[in-house]
Structures are given as C-alpha cells and as structure tokens.
Amino acid sequence: MKHIRFLVFDLDGTLIDSSDGVVESTNYSLRMMGEPEQPPEKIKPYIGFPLTQMFPAFTDAPVAELYRHFRVKADEVVVASSVMLDGVQETLRLLRNHGYKMAIATTKVRVNVDGTLDKFSWRGIFDTTVGGDEVAHVKPAPDAFLRAVEELGGTPETSLAVGDTINDVLAAQAVPMEIAAVNCPYGGHDEMRALKPDFTIGSIRELPALLGLDTPAKGDAA
Rounded to whole angstroms, how far apart are CA atoms 39 and 4? Predict the structure, then answer.
C-alpha cells in the first residue's frame, strides 16, 4: 500500500477502551432521570455511536436532559478510566517513525480527546484530531474523516481510515476512502464485515503488515 501516507484513526474501540467510564456515565444519567440502569453488555455495543442513538434504546426520557447529565459524569470518569488497547503504543510509534502523518477522528467531544492525548502522551504522535463536537454531522456522516484528511494535507486517495464500527466503515465509504476495519472489543464484527470494508484486521498490531512495513523503522527494536 505504497500510495497510503496518511492514517485517520477512530478512537474508542480502535485505540482505547473507555467503556467503564461510558457505562458509569450512562447509568448516572439514567439514574438522574429516574430511569432504570442498564447492564454493561447492553451499553457497550453503542460505544462509538452518537448518544442520541443510544439513549432512545433505553428510555423515552428527553435525550437533551440525559446528555446533560452524561456530560457531567463523563468529564469526571471517561478519560480517567480509559486504557490503551493491546499493541497500540508500539504500533503508533512504528508508524510515526516510518513517516506516516496521523489523525484521530472520533465522536468523542474535544475535551475528552484532549484529555486522552495528554494521558497517553500522544500530542507528538498525532498531527491533528477532530472531535464529534467540531463537525456538523458525526459518523456515519463523512465529515470527521474529510476534515481530518484535509488538516493532514492529504487526499482521500492517499489516506486510510482505521476504525472498529459500522459507523466508521459507512463514514469512510461516504468520503470515499479506503478503510481497515479492526475487530471491535465491544462486538458487532459480523455487522461490520457485512458492509465489506476494504481490509479487515484482528487487532491494531496487524496494521503495519497491512501497510507493507516488513521491517522495523530505524531506532525500533526488531
């Protein structure tokens, strides 16, 4: 894939797992509205999707009020509870050392994106980031991917999206740009593959090989 020089990553489920914080924030907002809490296995499949899509699956309470309560708790716990997925740090460093320009394009809001960058010392890794509150339409609309590619100075033809949900695949196809679909830690693999992404990989560790990087970059251990 010599034509690819720009990489646009989804965040949650692709690079990090913030599910504990999302579950806690969701149930906090439901409690504040007098609604029953939901088990983690029902909440996690919605991670990476807009909250306006998740909350109606659990309650008829006003989404705007639920969102307000969610943000209060999320600002406390989402970044704090986030962990990097296996193999992410070394893979990002390898890609950076090989000269790829990289971006994050996510439905997470800017404050959580910035918190994540600081927590994992990623400001020197990513050239730009796009939060869900910085575009007119979140995924599956192509806005975030398009803005990330533009800010990287690339083109859709020279860029690869990397994501873990059907919304990532649909957004990339709407650009259109190629996408490598990564197995999501929250499930939904069959639904994602049914959309026929350009490439599928089991984990982020497989991305360098997909890009044709057979040897470590200079300065990396073998």
Answer: 41
At residue 217 the predicted structure's pLDDT band, cuts being 50, 70 and 90, is very low
The CATH number fitting domain 6-16+83-210, selected from 3.40.1620.10, 3.30.1360.70, 3.40.50.300, 3.40.50.1000: 3.40.50.1000
Quick check: 69 and 33 in contact, CB under 8 A? yes
Above 50 in pLDDT, residue 216? Answer: no
Q: Cα 189 to the chain's mean position, in Å?
A: 15
Q: Residue 146 has what pLDDT? A: 98
- Cα 7 to chain centroid distance, Å, stands at 13
pLDDT value at 80 more than 70: yes
Q: Answer whether the bond into residue 50 is a cis peptide, omega within 30°.
A: no
**What's the confidence (pLDDT) of residue 188?**
84
Distances (CA, A) of 24 to 157, 208, 221: 40, 34, 39
Q: In what order do the strands lie in the sheet with 199-201?
A: 128-130, 101-105, 6-9, 159-163, 178-182, 199-201
Strand pairing report for 83-84 and 16-17: antiparallel
Mean pLDDT over 153-172 rounds to 97
**Residue whose entry in the numeric block shows the structure tokens 């939060």:** 131
Instruction: Output b/e per residue, 73-95; b: 16+ Cβ within 10 A.
Output: bbbebbbebbebbeebbebbebb
